[in-house]
Design goal:
The complex is a heterodimer. Chain A is built from nine helices and no strands. By secondary structure, chain A is mostly helical. The relative contact order of chain A is 0.18. Chain B is of the alpha/beta class. In chain B, the strands form two sheets. Chain B has a six-stranded mixed sheet with strand order 6-7-8-3-9-10, sandwiched between helices. In chain B, strand 4 and strand 5 form a beta hairpin. The N and C termini of chain B lie far apart (39 Å). The chains are: A mainly alpha, B alpha/beta. At the A-B interface, helix 5 of A face helix 2 and helix 3 of B. The complex binds adenosine-5'-diphosphate and magnesium ion. The site of adenosine-5'-diphosphate (ADP) has 10 residues of chain B, from helix 1.
Chain lengths: 246, 252
């Protein structure tokens, strides 16, 4: 029952979000702001996580394939595919759900409980659209770029770890990351990223928008925003993988 | 004139407003009083259309406002100024941007004209040299005044104030109350104020309705209150011992 209640209310909110904007210039400015706060401000964390995880993936791959029959360049290939297929899209998506999701839910939730949303509505603003649409657009546009950055940095992190520890030579690794490269994997990662961006921003906005109560409830709803965004990301990962790779 | 006609409002299974009818006239300060949790805010928000009512209607002059859709409501919202309980200033915008905001939404004024109008309103509420500060950098009383400036930016015909005195010291309360009274006279607005502050009731209640458990329990003026025999009203108004004694003495 609860599920259908939230599901229905979420879709009603989305129809409000996507109804025709009134003063498009204001939306344009808001979207620019969100590109900075949701997108550009996430580059740092994506780089840090990608370089370390890329390194770990490469080392684990190397230690799991210490068989003389395996050519060493396979390490590069397997690290690359793991990074593209799962890490840079889904893992980064989950991390962004934590970072962006909680900030969106608490920002909108605070505006709700301090009646700033009511103040917008009184001024004839469609508050749902004004607050949420720019966030969705900004993330859907910018997160694919974050995924690309993550892929590049992750593969680079693997190269550093591999060569520094000597588990794989620079030539083998570089040969490996180019070997049997399937460009569609990148497309697949980017498609997933777009879905995740939509899930994170819309679900978190939903939890913020309908908060009632005080600071405690805002905190709770931002936790819920992160948890449900993560669950939906994982669920859509399964569905999209089946649809796109089978 | 605003006419509230037999309205009902409930949330989930809690009925908050029960069959409330009342009329508010021009150039008057109308007060809605009642304990906290009695439904004052819900009533105010139902009148301005921030909440959809379940039954009954709200009319602004001859327009049945509560039945209009979002776009049509805008025509009337343009004429509404509202002061929220916690001021509800946009905390990522400066004082000046806050006052300019409704002008952005409803007018095609040039930037200079908007700034001029914003400064006029800020002067009116005695906020000087704070244009570029953020809401978090000014005191609660100043925030209230900035919120009033924002509410009057579009020359409203209707002014709604939800507990303008909450969280303020008695002297600041008095100032805010006087400001609301002056603006009501100057702009000739229909002003509706929610309050549980007895000083305001005695100061400027030209028309008072008393809400108790979601129902309209009593209606009258500040003078009527002193003679009222309504038990619930007396319990509320003369809540403390001293006030009760005063009323008894006055009766004798
Ligand atoms: N959006 C809402 N959802 C559910 N219940 C609400 C909502 N808004 C108010 N209420 C309930 O309505 C009752 C009256 O609240 P309110 O009008 O805020 O009282 P007050 O007279 O203090 O302003 C309270 O019991 C409150 O919990
Ligand atoms: Mg209230």
């Amino acid at each position: 029952m609860q599920f259908f209640y939230h599901f229905g209310r979420y879709f009603i909110l989305l129809t409000k979000v996507f109804s025709k904007p009134e003063k498009s210039k204001i939306y344009y400015n808001q979207t620019l702001k969100e590109l900075i706060s949701l997108g550009v401000n996430s580059i740092g964390i994506v780089i840090i996580i990608s370089v370390f995880t890329g390194a770990v993936i490469t080392l684990q791959t190397a230690y799991n394939t210490e068989n003389p029959f395996y050519p060493r360049y396979l390490i590069g290939l397997m690290a690359r595919d793991t990074i593209i297929l799962e890490f840079s899209s889904t893992m980064v998506g989950l991390i962004l759900a934590g970072k962006i999701g909680s900030s969106i839910a608490s920002e909108i939730g605070t505006m709700r409980i301090t009646e700033q949303i009511d103040a917008l509505e009184i001024m004839g603003v469609n508050s749902a659209s004004y607050l949420i649409l720019p966030k969705i657009i900004a993330s859907v546009l910018f997160n694919p770029l974050l995924t690309m950055i993550s892929i590049a940095i992750g593969v680079f992190g693997g190269w550093i770890a591999g060569t520094v520890t000597g588990v794989v030579s620079s030539e083998d690794y570089i040969y490996g990351i180019q070997f049997a490269f399937i460009p569609f994997y990148v497309t697949y990662a980017l498609i997933k990223t777009v879905f995740y961006a939509f899930i994170i921003t819309s679900v978190s906005s939903y939890y913020g928008y309908f908060v009632r109560g005080g600071a405690l409830e805002v905190g709770r709803s931002s936790t819920k925003a992160v948890v449900y965004s993560c669950i939906l990301i994982l669920l859509s990962d399964v569905i999209l993988t089946q649809l796109l790779l089978s | 004139m605003i006419k509230v006609d037999h309205i009902w409002k409930s949330f989930n299974n809690q009925t908050v407003l029960k069959d409330i009818s009342v009329e508010f006239k021009k150039g008057k300060t109308n007060l809605i009083i009642g304990q906290s949790g009695s439904g004052k805010t819900v009533l105010l928000k139902s009148i301005v259309g921030l909440l959809d009512i379940d039954k009954g209607e709200v009319k602004y002059d001859d327009v049945v406002y509560s039945k209009l859709d979002f776009r049509k409501k805008k025509e009337i919202r343009k004429k509404i100024g509202m002061l929220f309980q916690g001021s509800a200033l946009f905390d990522s915008s400066t004082v000046e941007e806050n006052v300019i905001y409704p002008l952005n939404m409803f007018t095609n004024m040039s930037y200079e004209e908007k700034r001029e109008r914003a400064n006029f309103c800020l002067n009116r509420v005695n906020i000087l040299n704070a244009n570029h500060l953020y809401p978090s950098e000014i005191s609660g009383g100043m925030q209230k005044r900035v919120a009033i400036a924002r509410a009057i930016a579009l020359n409203p015909e209707y002014l709604f104030c939800d507990e303008p005195d909450s969280g303020l010291d008695p002297i600041t309360t008095l100032r805010i109350n006087n400001l609301i009274k002056e603006i009501t006279d100057e702009f000739n607005t229909i002003t509706i104020v929610n309050t549980h502050d007895m000083n305001s009731v005695m100061e400027f209640g030209e028309k008072i309705i008393f809400i108790h458990m979601g129902q309209k329990w009593w209606e009258g003026t500040n003078k009527d209150i002193l003679h009222s025999e309504n038990e619930k009203l007396n319990d509320f108004v003369f809540a403390n011992h001293m006030a009760k004694r005063l009323k008894q003495i006055k009766r004798i």
